[in-house]
Design goal:
GO terms for molecular function: oxidoreductase activity, acting on metal ions. Its cofactor is heme b. Its main location: membrane. Ferric-chelate reductases reduce Fe(3+) to Fe(2+) before its transport from the endosome to the cytoplasm. This protein is α+β, with helices and mostly antiparallel strands. The chain has 3 domains: 107 residues, no CATH class; 135 residues, Reeler domain (Immunoglobulin-like), CATH 2.60.40; 176 residues, Immunoglobulin-like (Sandwich). It is 17% helix and 34% strand. It contains 5 helices and 26 strands. It has a 7-stranded mixed sheet, with no helix packed on it. Strands 15, 16, 17, 18, 21, 22 and 23 form a 7-stranded antiparallel sheet that branches. Strands 3, 5, 6, 8, 9 and 10 form a 6-stranded antiparallel sheet that branches. Helix 3 runs antiparallel to helix 4. The longest helix is centred in the last third of the chain and has 28 residues.
Length: 468
């Protein structure tokens, strides 16, 4: 044929009849869904404490029963957990004379649909947990007594009814080897927890009047003043001798959070959350391991914790030392970091993925240095240009080019330009423009990330398929 349409080969080769670029736009709007209640809780094996950021309940309502009170090495003892409906659990066997020690023996499952084996302290099958968040009232497993079993064994279980309601290390009765001396030493089955950080109510709204003077402030929008525009997002740091007072304000619903980061990408960050729990606000330090759900940490480093819920606004404040030697996951505030600000929904104390891109400062800042008044962006300029170019290419130039080829071939059949049919020249120009814009847009995320991003979900894969 003398004339052929100039096309983006990959798109039209893949496209089925009736398939349009709009379908790709739809695909790119699909969000990935993270699922956390899988029972893979090996990080909690030692302390048996869920990383939910709430204090455990005091009086257990669930029970562990055993099929026999004596055992010999090699025996299988049936262990039953029962009680009101619960979603999650973690079951281990410990030496009754050293309940803080490593798990003893291994388990065999009776129903693998509701329970699974975990490897704790490098001992395969030494713990049992749930497989999903479906409600359960009874779990049965077998415990296999090892040849090196201590004289006395006690089973401990942590039970989660819902995210902020759980019981830690509920004990069973003690089972013993037949020739063992009677067990007489009683020890606490639950490790003592630290005294909760005192919390008070804020009596007045935060103010931006000292921003840039005494306070290091991050505001969205930049003119935000929580004393006047209460729904805006506000974060401030006020340095004292050896500590920093933090104030955060924003919409009442869900949660507010900020994090210190070494780069402009989520992962390995020092984070702090204020979570609306209906009538109170829970202030919680946390950290991230990659693009995952935050891991809640101890509140011990926080002092002077206070909060306020009123007029559709949530506010919280706390003080922490600039340096916290020996405290894991807390950064030294004498260093510069990128600062993230995010918000999202929360239900029953459990937080969900932020509702929009976090606001990220344009550069690294040291909040204990000179007071400043800064803003940030919810998207890098490179990523904004990437999105704009892809939109122009796939929603404008390519669409017009296809329409020209489809409807103007007969209309402009006798009009020529530079030796070719006019409709074909216009079509070719538009499709070449689409190719150039796509190529430029394609390389921008790689420049922004400095290479391939393994943590950006499905978007980069779909983008590569579309432009292949």
């Amino acid at each position: 044929m003398r004339q052929q349409l100039v096309r983006l080969p990959s798109l039209l080769k893949m496209a089925a009849p009736g398939f349009t670029p709009g379908a790709f736009v739809f695909l790119l709007c699909i969000n990935s869904v993270a699922n956390y209640p899988s029972g893979k809780v090996t990080q909690s094996c030692h302390g048996m404490i869920p990383e939910h950021g709430h204090r455990p309940q005091a009086d257990p309502v669930h029970h562990i029963t055993v099929s026999q009170v004596t055992f010999r090495p090699g025996d299988q003892v049936e262990v039953t957990l029962s009680g009101p409906p619960f979603k999650g659990f973690l079951l281990e066997a410990r030496n009754a004379e050293d309940l803080s020690g490593v798990p003893v023996g291994s388990f065999t499952l009776i129903d693998s649909q509701v329970s699974q084996l975990l490897t704790c302290e490098d001992i395969q099958g030494s713990a049992v947990s749930h497989t999903s968040s479906s409600k359960k009232t009874e779990i049965k497993v077998y415990w296999n007594a090892p040849s090196s079993a201590p004289n006395h064994i006690q089973f401990l279980v942590t039970v989660v009814e819902k995210y902020k309601i759980y019981w830690v290390k509920i004990p069973s009765q003690i089972i013993s080897q037949p020739d063992a001396l009677p067990f007489t030493t009683l020890k606490a089955t639950v490790s003592p927890l630290s005294t909760p950080t005192p919390v008070s109510r804020l009596t007045k709204l935060f103010s931006a009047s000292d921003c840039g003077k005494k306070k290091f402030c991050i505001r969205s929008p930049l003119s935000c003043d929580p004393e006047k525009e209460q729904a805006c997002v506000f974060l401030s740091f006020t340095k004292h001798e050896h500590s920093v007072m933090v104030e955060m304000s924003g919409p009442r619903e869900g949660y507010l959070s900020f994090a210190f980061s070494h780069d402009q990408w989520m992962g390995n960050d020092d984070a702090y959350l204020c979570i609306n729990e209906g009538q109170t606000v829970h202030v919680q330090p946390a950290h991230f391991s990659g693009r995952s759900h935050p891991v809640m940490d101890s509140r011990d480093p926080l002092e002077a914790v206070a909060w306020r819920l009123a007029d559709g606004v949530m506010q919280c404040s706390f003080r922490r030392n600039i340096t916290l030697p020996g405290v894991k996951n807390r950064f030294d505030l004498n260093t510069s970091y990128y600062i993230f600000l995010a918000d999202g929904t929360a239900n029953d104390g459990q937080i969900y993925k932020h509702s929009q891109q976090p606001l990220i400062t344009y550069e690294k800042h040291n909040v204990t240095d000179y007071p400043k008044n800064i803003g940030g962006s919810r998207s890098s300029l490179l990523l904004k240009v990437h999105g704009a170019l892809m939109f122009v290419a796939w929603m404008t130039t390519v669409s017009i080019g296809v329409l020209i080829a489809r409807f103007f071939r007969s209309v402009w059949s006798k009009a020529f330009f530079l030796g070719e049919a006019a409709w074909f020249q216009v079509h070719r120009l538009l499709m070449l423009t689409t190719s150039v814009l796509t190529c430029i847009a394609f390389i921008m995320p790689f420049i922004y990330r400095g290479g391939w991003s393994w943590h950006a979900g499905y978007h980069p894969y779909l983008g590569c398929i579309v432009t292949h």
